User: Fold this.
Amino acid sequence: MTQATAATLAIDGGSPVFATPVAFMKPGLLPQDVEAAHQVLKSGMLRSAKKCEELEQRFARASGARHALTCANGTCALQLAYGTLLEPGDEVLVPAWTYIATVSMVVAAGLKPVWVDALEDTMQIDVNDAAGKVTSKTRAIAATHLYGMPVDVHAVQQLAGTHNLKVVYDCAQSHLATVDGRGLGEFGDVCTYSFYATKNLGTGEGGMVTVNDDTLAYDIALLRSHGETEKYLHERVGFNYRMNDITGAIGCSRLDRLLDETNARRRAADHYDRVLNSIQGLVPPGRTKGADSAWHLYTARLDLDQFTCDRDTFTRALNAEGVPTAVHYPRSLTHQPAFKGLVTEHPPVAESLSSRVFCLPMHHELDGATIDRIGQAIAKVASAFRR
Ligand SMILES: Cc1ncc(COP(=O)(O)O)c(C=O)c1O
Assistant:
């Protein structure tokens, strides 16, 4: 049981729980990653080549997909998915509670986003809400496995089966997450990944698309590289969304230890759950049945009725105790100016989460003793602001 203390908050001049702040994440490279990149640099073969191919083959196996295609980042991975599966004007069911790219690429592809709310407990897309928003023009559902936690893929696939919808899963935060022990690549039409520097598999910039259909894989490969079927023969208009081999080599090197690091995140999340459950007013993230999260982020919720402060005051006090936090996200997507004119409603759970969530430090080196002390800091702040 975490003990609440009546000590003066660090933000008010008291001593912080951590004299040196805890690391929020550990995005750094190890010497072997640097060496892998160095080998490519020395070879002079900088374009997409053997290392990208190796990453594709290994990532496909690791995520349970038949094909994996490297690309420049997670945003263009989404653009490749929407661009091959859908036609301008199609309606796409999208989460109101996710990172902007999941939906901005829907808009960039000339598709119409239809906003779907989040579930309070897991904060993932609410498939019942999605079902109520299907129209004769709905052609797809895009779902993000947010924070690393898989959405209810069985419910999504059932909805898609009933209405003949394409399914795109945004897996930017969920490398190696599973459902019923199966890789996420087994579900849906296309899965997209980001290897942005802070992601569980971070290469700086980078991305991946996984698919199981051979024709779709071919179409995505074409769209990724100028629609080129043979040298200087372009069958369709495409892009240059290729990855380079320096990035591919860093990806391969980091993939060697990704499962161990993910399992360490899972142990940390279990420990956090125990700690948070012992502090009144703090709510740990719910878990989707059968899912094993990648725990990219550990996102707690505050029961604001129990406190005299708002979320930002709470986290500022926690930061002063040496516990860094982040807010993913400070506004739901329907409140983003970029989507003005495309919003007919503000799904209420998504809107309300934006004022209650905060992310705690999460990485593979976080040990139980540190999480216990983070718990002490949270309990100290909670008791100072308790109603
Ligand atoms: C859920 C989600 N989708 C898409 C992206 C976009 O990926 P990238 O930054 O590699 O373009 C991100 C990255 O932050 C993300 O978190």
